[in-house]
User: Fold Aminotransferase from Methanosphaera cuniculi.
Amino acid sequence: MQYGAKRVLDINLSQVRKMFEQASPTAINLALGEPDFDTPPHIIEALKDALTMGETHYSQNKGLPELRKAIVQKLKKDNNINTTMDDIIVTVGASEALYSSINALINPGDDVLIPDPGFLSYQEVVKIAGANAIPVKTYPENGFKTTIKDVENSLTENTKAIIINSPCNPTGAVIEKEDVKAISDLADDKDIIIISDEIYEKIIYDKKHYSFQAYTDNAITINGFSKSYAMTGLRIGYLSAIPEMIDEILKIHQYNVACVDTPTQIAATDALVKSQQCVTDMVAEFRKRRDLVVKSLNEMGLECIRPDGAFYVFFKCDNPDEFIQKALKEDVVLVNGNAFGDMGEGYIRLSYAQSYDNLERAMRRLKKIVEN
Ligand SMILES: Cc1ncc(COP(=O)(O)O)c(C=O)c1O
Assistant:
């Protein structure tokens, strides 16, 4: 008997997960997509207090009012987005925000533009919705930044939405302000929805982050707590959009998860309203690690661009499969760039969400491989 539903049969599981499974428990894992830092203590305290106070019941489907108010203020202050708490949905990570948005707004047969190289989930979630994922190729000459030209080159008659991710996983590229504005204008002219995944917003080095929703009503802002506050296991994120979109997205959210767990929502409120020093400190450490990795790889002759955001370096390699297998033998786990799309062919993604010491050790091991 064939158990899988037709639309699910050709959905792929993540290759990144497969890499973990091959690695020994003592390996230096540079395949990870999560900060190695502990969740800041004040967030943990808020979570514990919430449990002790018996805050273990359902919240409103859209999320706790206090948290949504804090998100509205954050969006105003950081992103120049004017919204209200009715137009926010608190979700089970950015992942659920993405899933609910696509399933609520996209029809089977629609085309959805996704970044190439880009985060693995985009293609599969679009497929689950019965829609077609159309790659927007981005180029190394341009630091893999998405430009208006790249988007225009991929547009089809049936394009219903464009997913944009800046700072980008896997390349660390940060989109330029003029492209954010131009793509927003294009979305308005052609009635296309921009789904803007801003999960790495805070992990950005000498650049400024710009949000599409500041320029167009045709944009959904997706963000979360996993990366900025090292809260990956607490599973919380959010989305912001105009009421016409929120009304539809809420239907998928409500019948899928009802709401996010209440203690986590209380902890996330603390994350937003208390001091942001923990974020500043984490980003400063990421910057040191990025500089170490980029310098070491370039000295080895493994060409890479210095990324402006996220915690990944995307480096060029003549034979990624062979290199990755050799690295595994040296107890270093990496991911083939082609897992992120055709434009990732000939590249390897390295995550520097590992301690500085471990990164130094890993660089010595990679150097050995190159020298041999
Ligand atoms: C680009 C991107 N979007 C979304 C997510 C999912 O984030 P969350 O943990 O909030 O579901 C990730 C996680 O790796 C990611 O890299």
Notes: The pocket of pyridoxal-5'-phosphate is lined by residues 33, 93-95, 119, 165, 169, 197, 199, 224, 226, 232, 237 (CB under 6 Å). The chain is about 45% helix and 15% strand. The longest strand covers residues 159-165. The domain at 6-39+277-371 is CATH 3.90.1150.10 (Aspartate Aminotransferase, domain 1).
